[in-house]
Write a structure and sequence with these properties.
The complex is a heterodimer of chains A (100) and B (106). With 100 residues, chain A is mainly α. Helix content of chain A is 79%, strand content 2%. Among the domains of chain B are: 28 residues; 34 residues. Classes of the chains: A mainly alpha (100), B mainly alpha (106).
Chain lengths: 100, 106
């Protein structure tokens, strides 16, 4: 028997790692991966609660989160490629203007 | 993850440089995130009636999962497919737009 709070703590730790990466890293791809890490941290707590309470909908919600994350990754990486083509840099500090 | 790997390989960017933004993020962000984690941890550890999840419990079967997914949540499932379709179209359009611009400028 593993207390559910351990899963929640791991989930919170993953989420906070994502936030730290988001704040500290200045590479566009790394920032994007940090967002994915935050999403996965939340997913972990969803699955933990779904497993504890024997509710299937929690797990299905995780599927939906994954699908949305995949769609976001596809569009986001396309945007990253477009930005890199236009400016040939990935540093977020240099990408502070909307126009070219 | 494969997508990320491909993009990293494709762009071949160099080392990231430290900037003012990252320094401010370190100075302000680290304590804020640590405080946030501390608050969440205390809340989780203080909650007594959370219970435990044993791995020997009967794990949710695929049958049950699919019954809920394809009967009760059929509409969200289908809406998600439209979302993915739009995402694929957007990704392709974004990736191709750069090519077109470059060709025109040449």
């Amino acid at each position: 028997m593993i207390p559910i709070s351990w899963y929640l703590l791991l989930s919170a730790a993953l989420f906070c790692l994502g936030v730290v990466g988001f704040l500290i890293k200045r590479n566009l791809i790394t920032v994007f991966m940090s967002i994915e890490l935050m999403l996965n941290g939340v997913n972990l707590s969803f699955v933990a609660f779904a497993h504890q309470w024997h509710l299937v909908k929690g797990q299905i919600f995780v599927f939906f989160v994954m699908v949305v994350a995949a769609a976001e990754a596809a569009v986001g990486l396309a945007i990253i490629i477009a930005v890199f083509r236009a400016r040939s840099t990935l540093a977020v500090d240099r990408i502070d203007l909307m126009k070219l | 993850m494969v997508l990320f790997t491909f993009v990293v390989m494709l762009l071949n960017a160099g080392r990231e440089e430290r900037t003012l933004g990252s320094r401010a993020g370190k100075i302000i962000g680290f304590p804020a995130v640590v405080a946030f984690l501390g608050v969440i941890a205390t809340v989780i550890l203080k909650a007594q009636n959370l219970g435990a999840a044993s791995l020997s419990d009967p794990i949710t079967s695929t049958e049950e999962l699919s019954r809920v997914l394809f009967h009760e949540l059929l509409l969200p499932f289908e809406v998600t497919s439209i979302l993915i379709l739009i995402a694929v179209l957007g990704a392709v359009a974004l990736a191709r737009a750069g090519h077109g611009d470059r060709r025109e400028s040449k």
